[in-house]
Amino acid sequence: MADSGPLSADGNLPADFAVPSHVEEVKVQMATFAARHSAAGRVVVLITSGGTKVPLESRTVRFLDNFSSGRRGASSAEYFLELGYAVIFLHRHRSLYPFTRLYSGINLLDSLQLESGMGGCSSGQVVVVDQQALPNIAKVLKRYQVVKDAGLLLSVEFSTLSEYLHLLKAAAQALSPIGSKAMFYLAAAVSDFYIPVSDMPEHKIQSSDGPLQISMKMVPKMLSPLVKDWAPQAFVISFKLETDPSILLERARRALDTYRHQVVVANILDTRRGYVVVVTPDTQVELVLTDEEASRGVEIEDRIVSNLSVAHSQFIAQNQAA
Ligand code: PAZ
């Protein structure tokens, strides 16, 4: 999550960030989802996932993006669902998605075959899935259908930084009424920098104008108003990514000190699939996958989610006792 420039005193985003036309409608959907599941005794997690797109031109031809695939968010969503959470999945358009992520590298047409059909099929042929090409597809499909039929997964998409910021604020306000039963799992890789609309050319930047120099402003801090104002009773986890291991833990601790939320999950770009540190104000737990576990398909998100769900239960119990 970006920890950079200021937000106005009333918690409004600068006018540079256009309000998406559907934000109020999505906020109502999220609030209804949270209220329904909370009333049914479930806890609710809002997962952010994927990178953000920062436009360089108003009629955008070019934009700045980042490395995030959305795999952490998508796989974590599945593990939260397994543990009984209802999940709001706020994700970058076309980033990895729960369940379908398992088949993202596969050409769909290579996994289907035409076979002669039985009587009722008008074309005389049926399309059959090659289960070798889609490993565990029957099990995954069954699980997906259970989740879908029970309405346990609410999908919300963003593409640009503006959309992400407004939708996150709306999500925080929508989940606030369920208090400590809400968890925020902020795994998206959000740009720390943007170009204000007033500084942006309307039309495509021309290479004939010579080398391009851009100056970018700091993206407002969202974690601060989220924790203080928008969802003050929620259990909040931010992620901290670095490339230099020597500064990782200091940065994670600094984020906890600054924003006063509950957990930072710290990771390094190259090792993020097999190693993270779960940092709280009082503890620091390393989660590590061995090569053997990784080769069996164990995922570190399983460990992260187990660790955090235990901490969340304790947090809820403390809040109820207080
Ligand atoms: O999306 P992904 O699975 O490729 O990567 C996950 C991640 C590195 C984006 C996430 O673990 C993370 O650290 N997010 C926060 C990044 C940041 O410091 O802004």
UniProtKB/TrEMBL annotation:
Annotated coiled-coil segments of the chain:
none
- TM ranges are none
- Tell me, in a sentence or two, what this protein's role is: Catalyzes the second step in the biosynthesis of coenzyme A from vitamin B5, where cysteine is conjugated to 4'-phosphopantothenate to form 4-phosphopantothenoylcysteine. Has a preference for ATP over CTP as a cosubstrate.
The protein here is known as Phosphopantothenate--cysteine ligase
Query: What is the reaction catalyzed?
Result: (R)-4'-phosphopantothenate + L-cysteine + ATP = N-[(R)-4-phosphopantothenoyl]-L-cysteine + AMP + diphosphate + H(+); (R)-4'-phosphopantothenate + L-cysteine + CTP = N-[(R)-4-phosphopantothenoyl]-L-cysteine + CMP + diphosphate + H(+)
Judging by the UniProt lineage, the source's domain of life is Eukaryota
- Family in the record: Belongs to the PPC synthetase family.
- Gene name? PPCS
